[in-house]
From TrEMBL:
Keywords recorded for this protein, A-Z: Hydrolase
Coiled-coil regions listed in the entry: none
Organism: Monosporascus ibericus
Transmembrane regions: none
One MF annotation (Gene Ontology) recorded for this entry: phosphatase activity
Protein name: Phosphoserine phosphatase
Amino acid sequence: MSLPGPLPALRSQPKAIFFTDFDGTITLQDSNDFMTDNLGFGVEMRRKGNKDTLDGRRTFRETFQEMMDSVKTPFDVCVEKLLENVQLDPAFKEFQLWCKANNIPIVVLSGGMQPIIRALLSHLVGEAEVLDMQIVSNDVRPRPGKSINDEDGWDIKFHDDSEHGHDKSLEIRPYAALAERPIMFYAGDGVSDLSAAKETDLLFAKAGRDLVVYCEKEKIPFTVFHDFSDIQKVVADVVDGKISVQEAATGRN
């Protein structure tokens, strides 16, 4: 297998790559939703924005910008509150260690912000383990004349110019285009994952969340998961050749 420089997940010549969303997927709570619901304009307006995105009336970039604009709390205080309230999927740490032992790189593709993701992962998983993970996400920047730790002092810095703010497919497609490549998985839960939903060999969509609805509406093959123990079993069976990705894509069943 060739090892092109821009594709870091190929460095160890893995059999598989696990791409994953962060908020609401690796974690039980979505950090951006938590900030919006508790420090911003609230649950009702956030849900309306999510529905508008799912229904194609507005872009994720537009609705997410509005969510983050509604949060005026200094950034360091936001991070502190998230560290107190956001919990890890109970099976993720075991999955992460299993992936490490089996040479399956984990690539975090997030519509959230890098400093929040790194702070939460370091807190929940451990700083040493986070060093092994590639994280591709949006970032944060100060508003003109302010520090990010001032009241209304920070703004989201989008990863790219797409309607998604961070088009996750752009990170996945170079791997998918290789003549010989690893099996590719993706796990997600919501509207920030729409750009990645069709890009890998097998999609895991979290039970009861918006991504399941989107996949059924768009007839995208997927399998549902409740926590990362479900994911670990299926990934292991696919990598070991016990089932195919087509057989694993059972939808809600």
